[in-house]
Amino acid sequence: MGVSIFIQQVLNGLTLGAVYTLIALAFSLVMGILGILNLAISEIFMIGAFVGFSLITAGVPVWIALIGAMIAAALVSIVIARIGYEPLRNANHITPMLSTLGFSMILQNLATNTWGSDPMQLTLEGWLETRFSFGLVSLSVVQIVVFVVTVGLCVLTALLIQRTDIGRALRAVAENREISRILGVRPRRMILVAFALSGLLAGAAGVLVGLHYSVITPYIGVEIGLKAIAVMIVGGATNIWGALLAGPLIGILEVLTVAYGGAAMRDFVVYGFMIVILLVRPQGLLGGSSKTSGGRV
Amino acid sequence: MLSSYQAGLVADGSILLLGALSVYVILSTGQLSLGNAGFMAIGAYLSSWLTVSVGMPLTLAIVISAAVSAVFGLIIGFPALRLKGLYLAMATIGFGEIVRTFFLNFEPTGGAGGFSGMEHVPLWYILGWTVFTLGCVMVTERTRWWLEIRAVNDDELAAGLVGMNTTVTKLMAFMTGAAIAAVAGALFAHQTLYIEPASFGFERSTEFVLAMILGGSSLAAGSIVGAALLILLPELLRDFVDWRIAIFGALLVAVLLVRRQGVLDRNLFGLARLWRRVN
Amino acid sequence: MLKSMMTAAVLGVATLTTMPAAALAEDLTGKVVKFGAIVPASGPFAEWGRANTVALKMLEKQVNDAGGINGAKMEITIYDDGAKPAQAVSMLRKLADDDKVLAVAGPATSSAAEVVFPVANELGIVSVSQNSSKPGVAAANRPWAFRNTVDEAKLATVVVPYFAKTFNVKTAAIIYDAKDATASSAGTKIFPKLLADNGIENLDADTPISFNTGDLDVSAQVTKLRSLQPDAVVLSADYSQAITVLREMKRQGMKTPVVGSTQLMSSAILAAYPELPIVAPTTFFAGLDVPAVKAFAEAATPLMRAEKNLPKTIEPSLFDANIYEIVSLFVQAVKETGVTADPANLAADREKIRDYMASESDFDGLGGKVRFAEDGDAIKSFFIVQAMDGKWTSLETACSSPEAGACDQ
User: Fold this and answer.
1) Beta strand C378-388 pairing with C278-282
2) CB contact under 8 A, B210 and A98
3) pLDDT at C121 over 50
């Protein structure tokens, strides 16, 4: 029984980690390319969850709901970029971060007034309800969907960044905005692309959370957002695969701490791990040179 | 004469001002701390324990708490030397969360149930500490030491090359900031008479930064404006009922867009002086 | 017509009992009687606060339509504290000093009550919480602090043995929200003691299973619960957090019955795991088969559903009933104790309301008689209810005071 419980816990951790991965990637796209911490990503994720929820409840097929929510989240993200970040792009790093905090407040209030503050619950039907049991270990179809979508989106993002012209332009902006402009890249357009991609990923994470945990509130982004920042740091903000490694790592670490250490220890372990990584390897597990870490405030 | 409601707002504003100053001092050396609520928690819990369980007079308890918090500032400040910009900020987020989780699980100070039994402090006492602290920071701003601090902020490498000890400057800033945040925490505890870990979360840390940046991050006096805005705006927006928070958020964004350097800045004062001279 | 009949039905509860004391009543014609309320109408509990607001406005209209309080017009000034303790304190000061109200209903959360009650004592104004059930909060702040709620310990003392007998429970495991003061106090002190008192083995006594408010993922905790194979699960959490746990139990196929505190009471919990028996104590739920409750629910439900920023499926909650009772009680206090509603007598009037609250008054609330004990918490009858197939069913009625006849009609 001990072994199957352990396997179950690892599966639990992987599912949680998959969600962390997507949100961390959303953070790191903006952080790695533009060097700002977009605190509103937690709320873009939440909006994605609600839009996905509403679409699924209205009878829209899950795949379409996923895409719809991703687009909605990306639009919100673009609005934040246009109003909250672009005019401040030459300011220090703190001012745009605080302006995204203002958007967090707006989005939470908007969601509360639209969907209520009480938990909204989803009842799954049909094939989504299916689950497989292997002795005491159980795995649901939704969990498989979560894994597949997460890995799929990571691969797509990596291909986009590494193999396409847009990706090259994004990397050029990340390296040096002024020089990239001279080379013919339009930095303002790239800012929007980075925010949009970030929104797509956060929105997808929202839908997956809605599907898997099937209960959401306007405040689900708050705690998970901070954890995702830790995941981004551990994986390395400048490497896409970093989040895919660090997400499951932190997810499993968290779950195993709860299972075998005690729930009270969990946040110590997660944030302690993040601080250790910052001190030992500030560029993260998979980050490149340490030169890119930080920058002036 | 202030009504009890107005007096309460002034007390809240003073404590927020101290919190903003704690961030300001650290930021002056180019280090952003998003974990000052952690230092505030240390000050709040330690001073409350000292006055309630040990029976120590409040002022002494505040001084001791500030000193202990400064030691924690040093402990955080050392590793912080290795980190820059937002990475340092994220490490301090981790510190803040760890302190909060510690008090959540630390039964001697009540854990999640919180801690109470403190005696209420009068408004003048809170104002006294605030004016004293603000005064110290503003006087320091006119000293040579402050020039060193600004130099570390503007170009750390150059400051080091001309023989300044940037390490000591940065550590001192962290210790001072931690001590000020602890004073804010101690006053908060003896103003609300009940403290719980949830009072010292990430939201509190960002509130400090927000007050400081909104008011103006280039001078200490800016934090007065920032703290006043953050305390008064939500009260003035009460008529908007269900949309109050959203409108508050929108106004924050608007202020940051219009005055990214904060409501007050050094140039503004320079202009005023110029204006006087012209007339 | 129907509406006014319902109004009369609800008000009848309060007005009938005022007759014997009519001798003391002042004629307040032309005056205004002002009360205050502090509700969390923004932030994570916005729904509670907004529904509270609807219930209070309904009461205000009912009282004034029925001729006011001894001829005076009643006014309730409602402020939002965003569930933030600091704002709740500001609002109490504002109500007491600037608005000069006679008494205040609220604040809602225990955290807010912890900081508001000492100030209520300092200013000399009654403050009555509609939600707070963290043990001892009113008791620490006598004589001005009250709560129209019952201490979780008193409720659980009755619920646990009843639950154990009904579901033949020999072993149980506790899961609680470690960040929520009320839930954590119940999960670490009240329930472990009661399990022991009732001869139930507590399977996670050595390594308590907990989570934190706001956690999305409790899969590890539930897997751990499942591995202990208990006869029952004790779930100590606020309903919005409890739903996350119940959903996870459903996903992992756990079928053990669940028992909890009043914090579980909400219509939202009914949808979380409809196949599972969930047992909790409460002093009110919208479907309760009592005339006063029915009249209140029938009058309040459409008003709440008509509200723009509230969900279309909302039902009046325990907290709405509590705050409605609190202000009804204030109204009765003014009627019976000769409150003058004259600004010059403000302090004396406030004292009269406090003394009325503390006395052995004869107030009929929605679910039965309501009085306040020495510790400031309500003595009222409560119901052990079970969530089954999407609705609450009352299984048993009990009284929150061990004294014989304390809750008798």
Assistant:
1) antiparallel
2) yes
3) yes
